[in-house]
Design a protein that fits this description.
heterotrimer; A alpha/beta; B alpha/beta; C alpha/beta; B: alpha/beta; 4-stranded antiparallel sheet; C: 5-stranded parallel sheet; 9 strands; 33% helix
Amino acid sequence: MYNFAYLDENSKKMIRQSILKAVAIPGFQVPFAGREMPLPYGWGTGGIQLTSSIIGPDDVLKVIDQGSDDTTNAVSIRKFFKKTADIKVTTCTKEATIIQTRHRIPEQKLNENQIVVYQVPIPEPMQFIEPSKEKTEKYHALEEYGSMYVKIYEDIALNSEITTAFDYPVFVNKRYLMSPSPIPRYDNPKMHMAEFLQLFGAGREKRIYAVPPYTQVKSLDFNDYPFFVESFDKKCEICGSSLGFLDEIITDDSGTRMYVCSDSDFCRKNLEINNGTNN
Amino acid sequence: MEPIIEVKNISKNYGNIKALENVSFSIWPGEILGIVGESGSGKSTLIKCLSGETSCCEGEIVFYKDNEQIYFSMLDEGRMHLLRKKDIKVVYQNPQDGLRMKFSAGANIAEPLLSLGSREYSELRDKALYWMDRLEIGQSRTDHIPENFSGGMRQRLQIARSLVSNPKILLMDEPTSGLDLSVQARLLDVIGKLVKEINLTVVIVTHDLGVARILADRLIVMKSGKIAEHGLTDQILDDPGHEYTQLLVSSVLRA
Amino acid sequence: MYLGKQVKNNITFSSDLLLKAELVCKTFILHNQNKAEIKAVKNLNLSLKKGECLVLSGPSGAGKSSVLKLLYGTYRLSSGNIFIRHNSRILELSGANPHEILALRKETIGYVSQFLDIIPRISALDAVSEVLLISGLKKKDAEEKTKEIFKKLKLPEKLWHLPPSTFSGGEKQRVNIARCFVKDCPIIFLDEPTASLDRDNIETVCSLIREKLKKNTGIIGIFHDEDLKKTLATKMVSLNETD
């Protein structure tokens, strides 16, 4: 059948070497020889290769997609690892040792025993300003990030504030500019001096990067236009919390909308607490 | 008086082609030095060597900055990059090579400062407005993109972008080529005034002797990668000594 | 190509002497015309003292303009020496480096040539006042002085803020004259300064010249107007075809 967690041991070794290098140089994009996976690019192949290389028989895996354990992709990837590695899987954030995620960081505070694996579509933060890889690699080497700040300047000039809502570029360990993957800006502060290890995998672009625990991660801004996170004046319709990141769901054709917690585990836990106090 | 740049016997080959051969000269602070010659004379290669974009095959370029002597051949890529960010700026013949066409004029002017570490938006905005005015592009156009500008405006934006970091020396590669005569006149106007006001050192490469006569204090005449002749502008244009210079000058009509 | 000569330190240069030319020769070699040689100036000797007005005379083509250009450093000497008092030194032109010559032109010699070489769209006011700005005057004072001399030269006020490229020959010449006469310098060269002017303006230029001479400025001039030559000249040097 399959080798443990699908990939052969040599591939895992190669990927672990890339991970080590990435951890040694926080925020730096390490190229790796991505393997062919049983799903197309754009569906999390990078994240899966990372998880496959680090997962062991005692690990507990949680997979979320936009915060939810229940979406098709999250379910499929969870099933994939259950089948190829027979490890314990969970929807409970506290229980997990590895959390593979697309587009969100869980609300629950994570600790030193946990690893978050991010799925990354476009690892290069300056991709849309400077399409040439040759040039962006030079920029990173020379610590030349003027063009990224130009984009932010432009944002302020046109919109009076920095409007970037997700994939908000960050400066890691005071050295490398990094794309945190398309997480909402709301999640950026969680990356700073985090207790947990953060690994980022881009399957199509074949890049791995990492932020080791207790690393400085600063969101780009100006002194007179400081970084700020979104705030919500609404509550989750299900659990009543206004603390986490809320998703806006349009429920009918006339535009009625409801707000629910994006993090499904967080929402569940809140409900339990509420029901507990109500009982 | 010490020169600001000394070029010592530089040569540059592209395969078998000798683009520059044993070129030596000095550039003095505050002067406008014109480099004239026809296509293929080595003018553009010379600018590339002076700006550090290319390295010379032989010879040395020395930059005198604040009591320091900086040898180009000894600079690593990082330090050269720093030099090009701040002190030695290039204005390209084609403005598109020196601008971000899809970003606003203000953003283009702000970039060198951002690159040098400026993090105050209001300060950047003020500087952008100031230079838009100074280069006669107009503050109202600060948020417009250069894609929608005329050739002359783009060129002036390029100049604003290069001057904002307060460089020691500005290298201009055929800045007036491709522009209408009246537009050229306006550009020369602006350059001439600015240079006097900021006490900038300028090297201007041109094949147009009329431009050289108006702007340059001294001229270097290039032919086939070598210096044919050099001297004060009026000396070269009114009393050309070298055979090639005479040929060049005789084809210019005096207004 | 003329090679620089050593400056002689032991030449006699009396305190009222401004300029001295010794055995100056200029030969043009036209490389593209079979290396034809044209002897423009041959063995010229002249000296200029403070307060003197030296007039160069001779038929057209005798080399009068060439002499001025040699003295100004535009033409490079084929042989001979030109000594000029510059600040407190005696500068020998052929041995001077480009910056010394530029300094000479900025501080010591004023030149009214037949052409007006300035940035195309600069106003007449700016073109003349910038000469004063360079020597350190404040903008307001420079403009005041400029307007004064424009008035003397009867340059219409409506032209002051326009670029001279659109002016008539006579108007351009007056701007040229203003550019030179507005500053104080010990030596002035004039190449046909009144060629396009009417009687009235010629009188004005005449009085401006006399004013300068009173201030001990040394002037070397070329005038086509015979009367002007006679009234102004304190010394004549005539160049003929074979001189």
